[in-house]
Design goal:
The chain is an alpha/beta fold. It folds into four domains: about 100 residues; about 35 residues; about 60 residues; about 50 residues, no CATH class. The protein has six helices and nine strands; from the N terminus they run αβββββββββααααα.
Length: about 325
């Protein structure tokens, strides 16, 4: 009797354990979702990698559905994947919502996240609708990018290493040639001489006496400039008059030139012509007769004129009466 009682307790304990285990399996195995009613949606993704059957669909972090079947290739363009979704009834998704493939963690499985727009129309997506989804940057893409970056980083490190070698060589040449002890000493001497020259200029050229003299000179130049301006204002009318005088002088010179041409023409006629004047200038006999005529004319006048060949007799040696006029009259 005692043994039967023990067996009954053990069996009852096993039964309770199996019931609890079954409850836990149903609770944590999502078997209750198998019996929930759903409505279908179709979403087309450019890349459906990572999505499998029963992948979670979340809205605001809450699971509202699952992937109904394994994604298939879109035979219309062979460049995208078609994913069938089962959304639990009671969850209405607003229009213009975004279906995006994401990740549940850094190393978690892929899932579909639904993002609701801020501006809503008040309508919801109808069952059986076909939508276009997007793919978020997941860990695999990040890993691929990290691999590419690692490769590029390796190349960059090699370039940096080569640049450091060249820089070390350049620094060595700089230290051996430019920064040589002799060059540094010469540089120090040059700096010292420049400093002494600057001090000499400051003490001699820019001394207080010199600056005062320069200041006085500038003041004198300013005063002279003022006086020169005043004098130029006074000289300006004289220059204008001088200009008019020069114009008049040019006209007079032009007239004098014309007169000189006339005199030159008369002189040419006298020198080259056949008249009396050329004969007087060239024939000495005519010149002598003219002198004799003038002597007789002065001696006797026109009425009492008589010819005489003695042209050399001086008038004052002969006693004559007072000289008369041109026609024989007396001159007072």
């Amino acid at each position: 009797m005692k043994e039967k009682r023990t067996e009954l307790l053990v069996g009852f304990f096993l039964l309770i354990s199996l019931v609890v285990l079954g409850g836990l399996i149903v609770q944590f195995g999502d078997f209750n979702e198998k019996f929930k009613k759903t409505y279908p949606l179709t979403v087309v993704f450019n890349d459906g990698g990572g999505l499998v059957k029963d992948t979670e669909i979340r809205l605001g972090g809450v699971k509202i559905g699952r992937v109904a079947s394994q994604p298939r290739v879109n035979t219309e363009d062979y460049a995208s994947a078609i994913v069938e979704l089962d959304i639990f009834e009671g969850f209405e998704i607003p229009e213009n919502a975004t279906f995006m493939i994401g990740s549940s963690g850094l190393l978690g499985d892929s899932l579909i996240e639904i993002t609701v727009p801020e501006e809503r129309t008040g309508n919801s997506i109808k069952p059986g609708s076909k939508l276009i989804g997007k793919r978020n940057t997941d860990l695999s893409a990040l890993a691929s990018s990290a691999e590419n970056l690692s490769t590029k980083g390796q190349l960059v490190l090699e370039d940096v290493r080569g640049a450091l070698v060249d820089l070390g060589s350049a620094v060595g040449k700089l230290d051996q040639k430019i920064l040589h002890e002799e060059n540094l000493q010469n540089f120090n001497v040059a700096v010292r001489e420049v400093t002494e020259a600057v001090e000499a200029i400051n003490n001699r050229v820019l001394a207080k006496d010199n600056t005062d003299n320069i200041r006085d000179l500038l003041a004198s130049l300013k005063s002279a400039s003022t006086n020169l301006n005043a004098a130029s204002e006074k000289v300006q009318p004289l220059l204008e008059r001088g200009g008019k005088a020069i114009e008049s002088l040019e006209a007079g010179i032009e007239k004098l030139s014309y007169a000189a041409e006339g005199v030159s023409k008369v002189t040419d006629k006298i020198n080259n012509g056949d008249g009396l004047l050329p004969a007087l200038l060239e024939d000495p006999e005519i010149k002598k007769e003219l002198q004799a005529f003038l002597v007789n004319l002065r001696r006797s006048g026109i009425i009492r004129y008589r010819d005489s060949s003695n042209v050399d007799d001086p008038v004052e040696n002969k006693p004559t009466a007072r000289r008369k006029g041109f026609f024989g009259g007396r001159l007072n």
